[in-house]
Amino acid sequence: MPLVTPLSPNHDAETKQLAEFFNETLGFCPNSVLTMQHRPAISKAFINLNKAVMANEGRVTSALKRMIAWVSSNATGCRYCQAHAIRAAERYGAEQEQLDNIWEYRTHSAFSEAERAALDFSLAASQVPNTVDDKIKERLYKYWNEGEIVEMLGVISLFGYLNRWNDSMGTSIEEGAVESGEQYLGKHGWDKGKHV
Protein backbone atom coordinates (compact mmCIF):
# COMPACT_ATOMS: atom_id res chain seq x y z
CA MET A 1 0.00 0.00 0.00
CA PRO A 2 1.57 3.32 -1.05
CA LEU A 3 2.23 6.03 1.51
CA VAL A 4 -0.04 8.42 -0.46
CA THR A 5 -2.82 7.38 -2.84
CA PRO A 6 -2.30 8.26 -6.51
CA LEU A 7 -4.94 10.61 -7.89
CA SER A 8 -6.93 10.07 -11.07
CA PRO A 9 -5.13 10.85 -14.34
CA ASN A 10 -7.88 13.46 -14.86
CA HIS A 11 -7.20 15.27 -11.56
CA ASP A 12 -5.19 18.10 -13.12
CA ALA A 13 -5.72 18.90 -16.80
CA GLU A 14 -2.28 20.45 -17.32
CA THR A 15 -0.50 17.47 -15.72
CA LYS A 16 -2.62 15.11 -17.83
CA GLN A 17 -1.56 16.89 -21.01
CA LEU A 18 2.13 16.92 -20.04
CA ALA A 19 1.96 13.28 -18.94
CA GLU A 20 1.18 12.15 -22.50
CA PHE A 21 4.99 12.07 -22.78
CA PHE A 22 4.95 8.86 -20.70
CA ASN A 23 2.62 7.09 -23.12
CA GLU A 24 5.58 7.08 -25.50
CA THR A 25 8.27 6.23 -22.96
CA LEU A 26 6.40 3.64 -20.90
CA GLY A 27 3.00 3.07 -22.50
CA PHE A 28 1.19 4.47 -19.45
CA CYS A 29 1.26 7.37 -16.99
CA PRO A 30 3.32 6.30 -13.97
CA ASN A 31 1.67 6.13 -10.56
CA SER A 32 4.52 8.29 -9.25
CA VAL A 33 3.26 11.21 -11.37
CA LEU A 34 -0.32 10.55 -10.26
CA THR A 35 0.88 10.81 -6.65
CA MET A 36 2.83 14.01 -7.34
CA GLN A 37 -0.45 15.54 -8.51
CA HIS A 38 -1.39 16.13 -4.87
CA ARG A 39 0.71 19.23 -5.53
CA PRO A 40 0.29 19.89 -9.27
CA ALA A 41 3.23 22.28 -9.35
CA ILE A 42 5.46 19.32 -8.44
CA SER A 43 3.97 16.97 -11.06
CA LYS A 44 4.27 19.60 -13.80
CA ALA A 45 7.82 20.60 -12.86
CA PHE A 46 8.86 16.95 -12.70
CA ILE A 47 7.44 16.11 -16.14
CA ASN A 48 9.12 19.15 -17.70
CA LEU A 49 12.44 18.25 -16.06
CA ASN A 50 12.07 14.64 -17.24
CA LYS A 51 11.44 15.79 -20.82
CA ALA A 52 14.46 18.12 -20.74
CA VAL A 53 16.79 15.49 -19.26
CA MET A 54 15.71 12.77 -21.67
CA ALA A 55 15.92 14.95 -24.81
CA ASN A 56 18.72 13.91 -27.16
CA GLU A 57 21.25 16.70 -27.62
CA GLY A 58 24.31 14.65 -28.55
CA ARG A 59 25.48 11.07 -28.89
CA VAL A 60 23.93 9.84 -25.64
CA THR A 61 21.09 7.80 -27.10
CA SER A 62 17.66 7.39 -25.58
CA ALA A 63 18.42 3.73 -24.94
CA LEU A 64 21.70 4.53 -23.17
CA LYS A 65 19.98 7.16 -21.03
CA ARG A 66 17.50 4.54 -19.85
CA MET A 67 20.32 2.06 -19.13
CA ILE A 68 22.08 4.80 -17.13
CA ALA A 69 18.80 5.19 -15.22
CA TRP A 70 18.68 1.44 -14.59
CA VAL A 71 22.21 1.33 -13.18
CA SER A 72 21.41 4.30 -10.93
CA SER A 73 18.18 2.69 -9.73
CA ASN A 74 19.89 -0.65 -9.19
CA ALA A 75 22.56 1.06 -7.07
CA THR A 76 19.92 2.64 -4.83
CA GLY A 77 17.69 -0.45 -4.74
CA CYS A 78 14.48 1.10 -6.10
CA ARG A 79 12.68 -1.80 -7.74
CA TYR A 80 9.97 0.47 -9.15
CA CYS A 81 12.53 2.57 -11.03
CA GLN A 82 14.56 -0.47 -12.09
CA ALA A 83 11.52 -1.88 -13.88
CA HIS A 84 10.57 1.48 -15.41
CA ALA A 85 14.10 2.12 -16.66
CA ILE A 86 14.50 -1.31 -18.28
CA ARG A 87 11.03 -0.99 -19.87
CA ALA A 88 11.90 2.42 -21.31
CA ALA A 89 15.29 1.11 -22.55
CA GLU A 90 13.42 -1.65 -24.39
CA ARG A 91 10.92 0.81 -25.88
CA TYR A 92 13.74 3.14 -26.98
CA GLY A 93 15.65 0.53 -28.94
CA ALA A 94 18.23 -0.97 -26.60
CA GLU A 95 19.66 -4.09 -28.21
CA GLN A 96 18.10 -7.33 -27.02
CA GLU A 97 21.51 -8.61 -25.96
CA GLN A 98 22.05 -5.52 -23.81
CA LEU A 99 18.64 -5.88 -22.17
CA ASP A 100 19.26 -9.56 -21.45
CA ASN A 101 22.73 -8.84 -20.01
CA ILE A 102 22.39 -5.45 -18.31
CA TRP A 103 23.63 -6.94 -15.03
CA GLU A 104 26.90 -7.87 -16.76
CA TYR A 105 27.45 -4.59 -18.61
CA ARG A 106 31.06 -4.38 -17.36
CA THR A 107 32.11 -7.60 -19.06
CA HIS A 108 29.52 -8.49 -21.70
CA SER A 109 30.48 -7.95 -25.34
CA ALA A 110 27.12 -6.25 -26.11
CA PHE A 111 28.41 -3.09 -24.40
CA SER A 112 31.02 -0.77 -25.86
CA GLU A 113 33.79 0.80 -23.79
CA ALA A 114 32.04 4.17 -24.14
CA GLU A 115 28.81 2.68 -22.76
CA ARG A 116 30.73 1.01 -19.92
CA ALA A 117 32.30 4.35 -19.01
CA ALA A 118 28.84 5.96 -18.91
CA LEU A 119 27.32 3.14 -16.87
CA ASP A 120 30.24 3.07 -14.42
CA PHE A 121 29.77 6.83 -14.01
CA SER A 122 26.12 6.20 -13.18
CA LEU A 123 27.04 3.61 -10.58
CA ALA A 124 29.68 5.82 -8.95
CA ALA A 125 27.47 8.92 -8.93
CA SER A 126 24.51 7.01 -7.45
CA GLN A 127 26.35 5.57 -4.46
CA VAL A 128 26.36 7.13 -1.02
CA PRO A 129 28.96 8.32 -0.44
CA ASN A 130 29.52 9.34 -4.05
CA THR A 131 32.54 7.60 -5.64
CA VAL A 132 33.08 9.70 -8.78
CA ASP A 133 36.84 10.23 -8.94
CA ASP A 134 39.62 11.18 -11.36
CA LYS A 135 39.65 7.68 -12.87
CA ILE A 136 35.92 7.92 -13.72
CA LYS A 137 36.47 11.44 -15.10
CA GLU A 138 39.36 10.30 -17.28
CA ARG A 139 37.34 7.42 -18.73
CA LEU A 140 34.35 9.69 -19.42
CA TYR A 141 36.46 12.27 -21.25
CA LYS A 142 37.99 9.52 -23.39
CA TYR A 143 34.59 8.92 -25.02
CA TRP A 144 32.23 11.79 -24.22
CA ASN A 145 32.22 15.58 -24.36
CA GLU A 146 31.15 17.90 -21.55
CA GLY A 147 27.62 18.41 -22.86
CA GLU A 148 27.12 14.64 -23.04
CA ILE A 149 28.46 14.21 -19.51
CA VAL A 150 25.95 16.85 -18.36
CA GLU A 151 23.18 14.86 -20.07
CA MET A 152 24.28 11.67 -18.27
CA LEU A 153 24.44 13.36 -14.88
CA GLY A 154 21.02 14.85 -15.57
CA VAL A 155 19.65 11.30 -15.92
CA ILE A 156 21.46 10.11 -12.80
CA SER A 157 20.19 13.07 -10.79
CA LEU A 158 16.62 12.73 -12.10
CA PHE A 159 16.61 9.10 -11.04
CA GLY A 160 18.11 10.01 -7.68
CA TYR A 161 14.92 12.01 -7.12
CA LEU A 162 12.71 9.23 -8.49
CA ASN A 163 14.46 6.51 -6.48
CA ARG A 164 13.88 8.45 -3.26
CA TRP A 165 10.31 9.35 -4.21
CA ASN A 166 9.18 5.87 -5.22
CA ASP A 167 10.96 3.87 -2.55
CA SER A 168 9.76 6.19 0.23
CA MET A 169 6.27 6.36 -1.26
CA GLY A 170 6.05 2.62 -1.90
CA THR A 171 4.52 3.53 -5.26
CA SER A 172 2.36 0.76 -6.72
CA ILE A 173 4.02 -0.61 -9.83
CA GLU A 174 2.07 -0.80 -13.08
CA GLU A 175 1.54 -4.10 -14.92
CA GLY A 176 3.62 -3.13 -17.98
CA ALA A 177 6.60 -2.30 -15.76
CA VAL A 178 6.17 -5.58 -13.89
CA GLU A 179 6.30 -7.50 -17.19
CA SER A 180 9.56 -5.82 -18.23
CA GLY A 181 11.07 -6.23 -14.77
CA GLU A 182 10.28 -9.92 -14.70
CA GLN A 183 11.49 -10.49 -18.26
CA TYR A 184 14.85 -8.74 -18.02
CA LEU A 185 15.62 -8.56 -14.32
CA GLY A 186 13.77 -11.48 -12.77
CA LYS A 187 16.55 -13.99 -13.39
CA HIS A 188 18.67 -11.94 -10.98
CA GLY A 189 16.05 -11.82 -8.25
CA TRP A 190 14.04 -8.74 -9.20
CA ASP A 191 10.51 -8.65 -7.81
CA LYS A 192 8.00 -5.93 -6.97
CA GLY A 193 9.15 -5.70 -3.38
CA LYS A 194 7.07 -3.08 -1.57
CA HIS A 195 5.65 -1.74 -4.85
CA VAL A 196 2.51 -3.90 -4.90
Task: Give an overview in words.
The chain is mainly α and 196 residues long. It has 2 domains: 13-54, Single alpha-helices involved in coiled-coils or other helix-helix interfaces; 62-188, AhpD-like. It contains 11 helices and no strands. The mean pLDDT is 96.
Order of helices and strands: HHHHHHHHHHH
Which CATH first-tier class of the largest domain would you pick? Mainly Alpha
Largest sheet: none
> Which band does the percent of strand residues land in?
under 5%
Distance between the termini: 7 Å
Strands, total number: 0
Number of domains: 2
The CATH homologous superfamily of the largest domain corresponds to: AhpD-like
Mean pLDDT: 96
Which of globular, elongated, flat, extended, rod-shaped describes the shape?
globular
Range of helix content: 55-70%
Give start-end ranges of low-pLDDT stretches.
none
Please give the radius of gyration in angstroms. 16 Å
CATH topology of the largest domain: AhpD-like
SS class? mainly alpha
Number of distinct helices = 11
CATH architecture of the largest domain: Up-down Bundle
Assembly form of the protein: single chain
